[in-house]
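pasting input
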Amino acid sequence: MMSKTVAELLADSTLHDVSVKGWVRTFRANRFIALNDGSTINNIQCVVDFENFEEDFLKRITTGAAIHVTGELVESQGKGQSVEIQVKEIEILGDSDPETYPIQPKKHSFEFLRENAHLRTRTNTFGAVMRMCSTISFAIHKYFTENGFYNMHTPIITGSDAEGAGETFRVSTLDPKNPPLTENGEVDFKEDFFGKETNLTVSGQLEAETYAMALGKVYTFGPTFRAENSNTSRHLAEFWMIEPEVAFMDLAGNMDLAEDFLRSVLSYVLEHCKEDLEFLDDRLQKEEAKLPQIERSPMNLIDKIKFVVDNNFKRVSYTEAIDILRNSKPNKKKKFKYLINEWGADLQSEHERFLVEKHFKCPVILFDYPANIKAFYMRLNDDGKTVRAMDVLFPGIGEMVGGSQREERLDVLKEKMKALDIPEEELWWYLDLRKYGTAVHSGFGLGFERLVMFATGMSNIRDVIPYPRSPQNAEF
Ligand code: 4AD
């Protein structure tokens, strides 16, 4: 008999003789096995008549063991499930030592589960989060495919850090103890694998631009690497970024795209992750109930997602935002760690969160930032001091998206690169785009894990990626 998944069994009450494989969550009173196979948050209850089995055999049905159950699917007599399996046969596929199995049927701290990340997906919370990761990833590809975008794979190893998006990880096959040296005593990267210095990419944008200027609408969805020493709950050293890039689109179009994209993906999540979302929502409400009233969020998880799906994002220029922040209570009462005194200040996460969570109380798109706090490739405005940059800020997360209209004018771009000491030889191909059929174009980058944080209500980015990479941590 073909085995079915637990999800299939729970969805089809016409089934009769069934076979299912999974891992034991609990085995109560030598009678009730709660079996889960990862296909759904729900377990299937398997009812065992212990008289039909040897005692020693039943002892092996412990939490974590992999088993194969055959029996009859019947309407459940008990509460909590509609159907259950009256067990005929059990095969133990893999024993689990109850003394040492880390995932016991009790509440574990997220810190403990991070140390056991290879097994944490067998818990309800991580099962739900990781299933949602998969659905969100699908929704992203679906959105772009349905909107005429081509998916492209940008290189992971690159020869430049021209983005300036942070510190890079070097890629080298040179012997670190005894590298070849130039006459000046510096490491001779000409002798390295690629004949030049290379690193892991911080973003696929520059290469995506080249394809947008041929295919029109493209996007990348790949891993990016940043060697910043940011040990925060929102930063990873390795994360996945979605970067659409569109020819003939200006900043206003870019804002429309980011907003429509985020709302569509979240709407798909509401529709297709119901059970996992309900579980995570409930978990979060129980967690929040332990907090003092003022620290609790005003909306539950599902309402928060619905709010984003149903409401327009607020669009505010950097200059307006600075005015709001300068006159805000926390600034006047010196409650911000970094006080906002003048135009030109780089916004910190405390400022972004104030704007989103306290002032506007909805996602905000900030645009037209000072040129000197943004990347070299952003389109300079006619005022000569701001660029057509945009950041999408989300409640509880801060920066979700960063993007811009790109500088399409060769002379302006060259001047900017010169001022920032970016060698033209390194980006000759990027400059070529401005020589041959240049045009207005724009794009943005979305951190996949930040979106998953928002959609799942998880507060630490290390809990929404299977194996997080962060300073001093590359286990698994
Ligand atoms: O704002 P960023 O640095 O933008 C870029 O890299 C552009 N090249 C994107 C583009 O225009 N194509 O990063 C984009 C997004 C951020 O808004 C954030 O969501 C996420 O990537 N991000 C991180 N996520 C996790 N850990 C980190 N260390 C991150 N740094 C950025």
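fyi The longest helix spans residues 124-146.
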